[in-house]
């Protein structure tokens, strides 16, 4: 990377808003004006001198205020009128008027004209303060909606033609699409359904893992039906002020009713629709009020008007049951991760704007991306395009996709060089996985073995390429899978007589799998076909008892531990048997791997044959 120049430091004065300067200038002018008016005309003389003047009969006239006495000397003193003027600070002198009468001075009392000093001394600072306050007030409520614009509704109104998404841009979730097509029908011809007495559903909840296209689908429904689309995210309702979220909901529904038929879409519904329970972290007053308001609005309005509320969540299990009742989000549409065909179709959508070389086979990429959601696939295409651009290619070819995929799967390639000893350990480890996976029947064929270090913690990997998506696994499959997972560590044991920390992730996955076999899938003969975990496993930070576990006793817990251990040691034995039988193959594969670092599945099979 080229050394970067330091960014120019912002001038602190340049950014100060002009209004502040105007304010300061105004204050200065007012100060000068005040100084001018407050300084009375004429020279100021001491009171004693003033008394002498009075007694000497030198004064023509006097104006006596409550603090100041202004006077003019008689003409005989000489000079123009201005120079004959003088002021005296008044002193408590009850006899003054008698003396003035005696010497025949013309004098008047004066109520001091105080509006100007008053104004300057009191009102102006106040005005100034208000101005400053207003300035910061505006700033706080300026960008990002700010603290003060809380009551305004942030939902954007999309006009009919603004939603350009169509169903053709969504792939790999055909069942969800079919269900949503019905909603489009409802929106377009509500009469057709209500005439027969049917009720149009009020709420449709899209449920599925992140990145599977829920938001996209909701927009596509609006796009297909040509109706306005109001969308807000659940987290936008959760504000720091109690009652604001509820006000927003009210607003949103008012706007929506005015625009019916239309769609109101609340994304990430779980943010506001979490079950209302007592949480150990205090109450959630605001969220509960918002949720209650949502429930009330959903009950209150009439679906015949054609407002359909859509929600999306990837954690339906935390939603408040009240949300799922009939009359609310009573329809649930599952948006699942795509299968091979779906992945291929999604890739096809996303390469539309990309120049792709003739050697790119989307079918192969789809096969290699089991478990990817739509968003991951979109990301993959983008990464590949970026890689090709970086290498100044005119089109994106197969190698770009391969590198992008490797990168996505195992993280970015690391620059640190491994020591020879570490490389040997990793090579034996990965060869162990690969050989066990190749020898055992019915395992996904090995696609690639790599000892190129990638990302954090991944020193190498063995990638198996499933021929088809699996929905079910038999107990034998699982046992074999465990043997493959433990194969890496076993190879280290056999070849080097030593084990390393590199197998930690394998062990964890193997243990999780063995535990699930025992406690969830009823695959242990000792414990029998019992599910000990209940309907779902507790999730991190969910409301509920910490460390919740299935309702079984201490004795069962022990039996479970024993069973897990037995299953794991069975798998370990299998791996040991295979690798001992294939001892020389383990050596040859490891040697070759150290040489070329990345081995394709075909070469592995030739070596093993
Ligand atoms: P979700 O809301 O389920 O988390 P999104 O709808 O935000 O997922 O998807 C993010 C992006 O991923 C979309 O904008 C789209 O580009 C891509 N994507 C996700 N699923 C699909 C799909 N089924 N078909 C096509 N593109 C998809
Ligand atoms: Mg989304
Ligand atoms: Zn491993």
Could you list the spans in which at least 5 consecutive residues all have pLDDT below 50? 1-15, 142-160, 537-547
Q: Which fold name corresponds to the CATH topology of the largest domain?
A: Methane Monooxygenase Hydroxylase, Chain G, domain 1
What percent of residues adopt helix (DSSP H or I)?
40-55%
Query: Which kinds of small molecule does this entry bind, naming each only once?
Result: adenosine-5'-diphosphate, magnesium ion, zinc ion
Total domains, how many? 4
Q: What integer value in Å does the Rg equal? A: 42 Å
Offer a quick outline of the entry.
This protein is an alpha/beta fold. It has helices spanning about 20-40, 45-55, 80-85, 95-105, 115-140, 175-190, 190-195, 215-225, 235, 245-260, 270-275, 285-300, 340-350, 360-370, 375-390, 400-410, 420-440, 475-495, 505-520, 555-580, 585-595, 600-609; strands at about 45, 60-65, 70-75, 85-90, 105-110, 155-160, 205, 230-235, 260-265, 305-315, 330-335, 445-450, 460-465, 600.
Description of the molecule:
There is one protein chain. By secondary structure, the chain is an alpha/beta fold. The chain folds into four domains: 73 residues, Signal recognition particle alu RNA binding heterodimer, srp9/1 (2-Layer Sandwich); 170 residues, Rossmann fold (3-Layer(aba) Sandwich), CATH 3.40.50; 70 residues, Helicase, Ruva Protein, domain 3 (Orthogonal Bundle), CATH 1.10.8.60; 189 residues, Methane Monooxygenase Hydroxylase, Chain G, domain 1 (Up-down Bundle), CATH 1.20.58.760. The protein has 22 helices and 14 strands. It is elongated and about 140 Å long. It binds adenosine-5'-diphosphate (ADP), magnesium ion (MG) and zinc ion. Adenosine-5'-diphosphate (ADP) binds next to helix 8, helix 13 and helix 15. Zinc ion binds next to helix 17.
């Amino acid at each position: 990377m080229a050394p970067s120049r330091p960014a120019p430091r912002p001038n602190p004065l340049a950014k100060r808003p002009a209004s502040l300067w105007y304010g300061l200038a105004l204050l200065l002018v007012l100060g000068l004006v005040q100084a001018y008016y407050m300084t009375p005309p004429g020279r100021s003389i001491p009171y004693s001198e003033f008394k002498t003047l009075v007694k000497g009969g030198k004064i023509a006239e006097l104006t006596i205020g409550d603090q100041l006495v202004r006077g003019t000397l008689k003409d005989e003193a000489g000079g123009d009128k201005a120079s004959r003027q003088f002021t005296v600070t008044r002193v408590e002198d009850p006899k003054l008027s008698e003396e003035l009468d005696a010497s025949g001075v013309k004098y008047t009392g004066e109520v001091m004209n105080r509006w100007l000093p008053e104004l300057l001394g009191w009102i102006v600072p106040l005005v100034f303060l208000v101005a400053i306050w207003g300035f910061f007030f505006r700033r706080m409520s300026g960008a990002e909606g700010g603290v003060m614009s809380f009551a305004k509704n942030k939902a954007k109104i999309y006009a009919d033609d603004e939603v350009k998404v169509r169903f053709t841009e969504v792939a790999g979730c055909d069942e969800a699409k079919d269900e949503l097509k019905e909603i489009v029908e409802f929106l377009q011809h509500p009469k057709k359904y209500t005439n027969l007495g049917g009720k149009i559903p009020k709420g449709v909840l899209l449920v599925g893992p992140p990145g599977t296209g829920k938001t996209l689908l909701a927009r596509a429904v609006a796009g297909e039906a040509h109706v306005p689309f109001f969308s807000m995210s659940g987290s936008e309702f959760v504000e720091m002020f109690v009652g604001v979220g509820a006000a927003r909901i009210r607003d949103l529904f008012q706007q929506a009713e005015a625009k019916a038929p239309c769609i109101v879409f609340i994304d990430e519904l779980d943010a506001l629709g979490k079950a209302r329970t007592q949480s150990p972290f205090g109450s959630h007053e605001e969220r509960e009020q918002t949720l209650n308001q949502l429930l009330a609005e959903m009950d209150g309005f009439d679906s015949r008007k054609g407002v359909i509320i859509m929600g999306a969540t990837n954690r339906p299990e935390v939603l408040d049951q009240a949300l799922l009742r009939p009359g609310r989000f009573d329809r649930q549409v599952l948006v699942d991760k795509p299968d091979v065909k779906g992945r291929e179709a999604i890739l096809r959508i996303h390469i539309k704007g990309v120049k792709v070389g003739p050697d790119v086979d989307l079918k192969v990429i789809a096969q290699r991306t089991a478990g990817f959601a739509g968003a991951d696939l979109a990301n993959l295409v983008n990464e590949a395009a970026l890689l090709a651009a970086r290498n100044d290619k005119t089109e994106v070819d197969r190698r770009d996709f391969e590198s992008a995929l490797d990168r996505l799967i195992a993280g970015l390639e690391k620059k640190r060089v491994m020591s020879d000893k570490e490389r040997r350990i990793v090579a034996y480890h990965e060869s162990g996985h690969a050989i066990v996976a190749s020898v055992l029947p019915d395992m996904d064929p090995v696609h690639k073995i790599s000892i190129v270090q990638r990302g954090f913690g991944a020193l190498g990997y063995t990638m198996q390429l499933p021929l088809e998506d699996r929905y079910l696994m038999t107990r034998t499959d699982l046992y074999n899978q465990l043997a493959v997972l433990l194969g890496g560590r076993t190879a280290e044991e056999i070849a080097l007589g030593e084990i390393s920390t590199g197998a930690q992730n394998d062990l964890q996955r193997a243990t999780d799998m063995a535990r699930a076999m025992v406690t969830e899938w009823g695959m242990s003969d000792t414990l029998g076909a019992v599910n000990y975990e209940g309907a779902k496993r507790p999730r991190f930070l969910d409301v509920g008892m910490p460390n919740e576990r299935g309702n079984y006793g201490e004795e069962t817990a022990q039996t479970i531990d024993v069973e897990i251990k037995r299953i794991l040691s069975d798998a370990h034995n299998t791996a040991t048997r295979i690798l001992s039988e294939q001892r020389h193959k383990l050596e040859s594969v490891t040697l070759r791997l150290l040489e070329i670092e990345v081995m394709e599945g075909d070469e592995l099979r030739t070596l093993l044959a």
